[in-house]
Amino acid sequence: MTEFVSAPATLPDGQRVYAIGDVHGCLEQLQALHAAIAEDIAHRPVDQCVLIHLGDYVDRGPDSAEVVALLTAGPAVPGATVVNLMGNHEEMMIQAIGSGKTEDAVHWSRNGGAESLLSWRIGRGVPQALWPTMVPFPHLAFLRGLAMTHRVGRYFFVHAGVRPGVPLDGQKRDDLLWIREPFLSSKQDHGAVIVHGHTPTREPAVRPNRIGIDTGAVMGGVLTCAILEADRVGFLQA
Hints:
The protein is α/β, with parallel strands linked by helices.
């Protein structure tokens, strides 16, 4: 049974959010979390249910292509509305495939892109110009169509975080995808509680102004899903 603790924000009765942190090609863990979420919904039905993936589906792990195929296929969990957000690794991949620039390819490859290419059966000797023809179009369309943010009540969901002191509707794309400091150490009220991934920690981080749920699945840690409902938060892990 999931243990819940007090959350820094509340949701109205009848609403629940499941938010999953950085997947990084860890297909089995993602499938296990989806199964656990489906089981939780079956045992504890709710009127409105949203499942949010916080980005970084690709790179470093072995199954990036399979993770994207799973998310492209349709609703991951019956009974839940699914929202897929953009991560900085998706942005690196899109740039490397779309720009044709060598520096974009090198930057992506050095940050886990080499493993992603292999998952799409693109060998190391394949010219960059051929990459767009070897990644299925539905996969590229999925990656390019990812949302940057999503808001539910007093919670604001984003991959990396926000720039303190900047209104949520005025945040820059680079910060939403890449920021660490000064966001992580900030004690400011950002106008909502920020639920994010991007920065791995051993355990989920629950602070008055943010909840961090990247627990390093691809680095020997676990994949974490936060359950937000009423005035509490709990965690599923795989």
